[in-house]
Amino acid sequence: MSTTARPATPSAPRRRLTVEDRRQELIAAALELFSDRPADEITLDDVAARAGVSRALAYRYFGTRAEIYVAAMRSAADEMLALLDPSHDADPLTRLVEAIRLFFEFAEAHATGFQALLSGHPGARAGTVGAIVEEVRGALFDRLVEGMGRRQVSAELRLALRSWIAAAEAAALDWLTNRDLPRRAVEDFLLSQLYAALTVAATGDREVAQFLEGLQ
Description:
Helices cover 70% and strands 0% of the residues. It has ten helices and no strands. Helix 1 packs across helix 2 and helix 2 crosses helix 3. The N and C termini lie far apart (91 Å).
């Protein structure tokens, strides 16, 4: 009994990525790796393997590990900066709460980028990447100042806000690692911390004291 061989079904052609799409694919793979391990332990070969592309192709887009590290951190920072674009149509307390919510919204939605950006190897945080991290911190600082309706920032307020930002980063990284508290509980905790920091600053800054009085 003879059988007639069926013609092979052609496989769907692999979609050809644009230069920018391929670049973003490599950056996404790099962000995943940089969020798991220190930057100096990652090679461009690792990034190529994670993205599923050849070593030669990865090197065509990024000549060195340093280049893709900077590009990955820039990508993560740009997404966060876009979220922190301030809104001016709410009362001060709502704006402060919104700033905290957006900070954690980004941390959760873009966990790999956030962790890579803020928990990278200290040696990789100098130079260009260090400037990117400071840009993100500066944007959050400005969002908080704007939320308070301030134009001038006293030494007391600057110290309170910068200390709080460091605490917020640590809390977000801890939460992303452990996830043993509801996100809202962590946000409320940080709001209480911010209020406490502003209360201390208010002892030397009458405008901060007036701001806190207006919240009651």
